[in-house]
Automatic annotation (TrEMBL), chain A:
Keyword Membrane on entry: no
Lineage of the species this protein comes from: Eukaryota, Metazoa, Chordata, Craniata, Vertebrata
Family annotation (PANTHER family): CENTROMERE PROTEIN P
Coiled-coil residue windows: 6-33
Keywords of the record: Coiled coil
Name listed for the protein in its UniProt record: CENPP protein
Organism domain of life: Eukaryota
From TrEMBL, chain B:
A Gene Ontology term for the protein's cellular component: Mis6-Sim4 complex
Compartments in which it is found: Chromosome, Centromere; Nucleus
Phylogenetic placement of the source organism: Eukaryota, Metazoa, Chordata, Craniata, Vertebrata
Major location category of this protein: nucleus
Coiled coil: 16-57
Protein family per UniProt: Belongs to the CENP-O/MCM21 family.
Protein name: Centromere protein O
Gene (UniProt): Cenpo
InterPro entries to which the protein is assigned, alphabetical: CENP-O (IPR018464)
Keyword terms: Centromere, Chromosome, Coiled coil, Nucleus
Length: 185, 237
């Protein structure tokens, strides 16, 4: 009889721990996604953190922050893809499957874009797989017919990667053309 | 006689003591478990309440902004770190991402076919005294040296773009061949033959129509290494 009770309690403990894990993740995700801090607030926080506690953990955080910022700024400069704003919202999270809705805006040289896409991620034992399940693209300045054909075909096939690769190449050639014409002026 | 009797009593007393101790341990264990369950239930209820509050706040104000005074400086910095990591993940989705290293850059070329992201490849470059490939994870049938000879020194962007074209086309062909095997296994006869670059596919398949099946033989040649569509198709029966 007592063994049964023990087992019952142990089962409930297991269930509660799993539920707590899920709830905590959901709460933290929501916090992350619905909050926004400006650059000044970040700088202030970094300063006050360093004043408060001089220690290894704060210098680790500072190093991590700086390394991430340098990598990001390098990538934007190198690829020409400037990401101005990005927000994401978790639409569904169950087991090892996560669906998030992303909003992205930026420009590649002179071409500006606004994207909305839905990304389905599944975590298996060895790896994480990602699939774009919905994609909508709005190009900024002037849509010529070639560009709009490209955009609608990309949207239809949810070719997010192809969009960026082609955008990058196209934008670079536009730059070359602009520079060449300037040369002749 | 007496000794044996005493031994018997001692044994009985010992057994009774052991049993008593077991029962007490069992009671303690049960009490501990019960307390743990209470503790966890409380934690779970608190989290549910917090989430509820979050939801209400979100519905009340569009894009609720947390008062910075409420969040600790550490939480703010951690928020920014998470945000930067998300942005870097977006770069992964664009096809070319990377990370600065002590002696250069380690690029990551990701591949995808129609929205499904596939394998990604790494290219570790040194930038001094000149740009050179330190190590990479590219498959050997991708003409890396050829492409490097042409573009690496003069135009790294172009170098990566061409590599990305080759890799994406290869992964696209491979993915399509895998999907063919997986989703049309009923119609395929025998095994699908392919080479490592997946630019030559040979297979037999059957088409059924009105209870009759017709066998076909197909040969797909993908002449352009940067394209995931065949340039030549031969179907015979």
């Amino acid at each position: 009889m007592d063994n049964n009770n023990c087992q019952m309690y142990e089962d409930e403990i297991q269930l509660l721990q799993e539920e707590i894990k899920l709830l905590t993740e959901k709460y933290e995700d929501n916090q992350q996604e619905s909050t926004f801090f400006s650059d000044e607030e970040i700088l202030m926080s970094m300063k006050s953190l360093q004043e408060e506690c001089q220690g290894e953990s704060t210098s680790d955080l500072k190093a991590q922050l700086e390394s991430l910022e340098t990598d990001l700024s390098f990538l934007m400069k190198f690829t020409g893809i400037q990401l101005r704003s990005h927000s994401k919202k978790t639409v569904e999270k169950a087991g090892n499957k996560t669906v998030q809705k992303h909003r992205l805006s930026g420009n590649c040289h002179s071409l500006s874009f606004q994207l909305e896409f839905q990304l389905l991620e599944m975590q298996s034992k060895e790896s994480m797989s990602a699939v774009v399940t919905d994609l909508s693209i709005v190009m900024g300045s002037g849509e010529d017919s070639d560009m709009s054909k490209f955009v609608s075909s990309t949207e239809e096939h949810r070719n997010l990667l192809t969009f960026f690769r082609n955008l990058s190449t196209y934008a670079e050639w536009c730059e070359h053309r602009r520079c060449t014409f300037l040369h002749f002026k | 006689g007496l000794f044996a009797h005493l031994e018997l009593l001692e044994a009985r007393a010992y057994k009774a003591a052991v049993k008593q101790e077991e029962m007490e341990q069992q009671k303690e264990k049960l009490a501990r478990l019960r307390a743990r369950v209470q503790e966890l239930r409380l934690q779970r209820d608190e989290l549910r309440a917090k989430l509820d509050l979050q939801r209400k706040r979100e519905l009340g104000k569009e894009g609720a902004v947390l008062d910075p005074a409420q969040s600790s400086a550490r939480a703010v910095v951690e928020w920014k770190i998470k945000k930067l990591k998300s942005m870097l993940q977006i770069f992964y989705l664009t096809g070319i991402s990377g990370k600065l290293t002590k002696r250069g850059v380690c690029f990551c070329i990701s591949t995808a076919y129609e929205g499904t992201y596939l394998d990604s490849y790494h290219l570790d470059l040194l930038t001094k005294p000149e740009v050179q490939i330190y190590r990479h994870s590219l498959p050997i049938f991708i003409p890396l040296q050829q492409i490097a000879k042409k573009f690496l020194q003069t135009d790294i962007r172009r170098f990566l773009a061409v590599l990305s074209d080759h890799l994406n086309a290869y992964m696209g062909r491979r993915y399509q061949a895998d999907q063919l095997q997986e989703r049309f296994s009923e119609q395929l006869e025998g095994t699908l033959q392919r080479n490592s670059l997946c630019n030559l596919l040979v297979f037999n398949y059957k088409v059924s129509s009105q209870s009759e099946t017709f066998p076909f033989h197909a040969r797909l040649l993908y002449g352009d290494p940067c394209c995931s569509l065949p340039t030549q198709v031969l179907v015979s029966c």
